[in-house]
Amino acid sequence: MQSEEEAIKNTKETAEETFYAENSFESNRQLDAFSMYLPAGMDVVEEDSSNVIIEDGDQTYIVFYNNLENPLSELSYESAAAKSDQALLLESFKDQEKFGYIRVLPDKEDAYELQAGIGGVKVTTYTSKSELDNDAEDMIKIANSIVKEHQNTVQK
To answer: In which domain of life is the source organism classified (predicted)?
Structure first.
């Protein structure tokens, strides 16, 4: 079993690799307000123009999308950084087209609040130490797909 330090290190590496990956995931789910990539096993249970609630078994993910923020926006990161004194991990990533971040906060016992964002998209869940890196990867893929879809729509 990995230590908390190893789990945090792996989460950071996975988040960074996923953010910079060349093969971003295409949207595979059309919602009322936008489309997104939905990993296998996840289901949309509720949606409105800026929020989506996703479930994977008994785990819930909340997606918030502010379409007024561009992909390079740091607004969600600045909000996440307000709790940086409690964060086990707060790391940002940037390339020419987008700005993203990952944050891990301790929750109760062996649980963690995990938040990942790119531009105006923020995804939050509560997870276990053993699932931190897998969840981070899925969450960045989700956020990246929404940002990418928005960029494609704006360019058309």
So the answer is: Bacteria
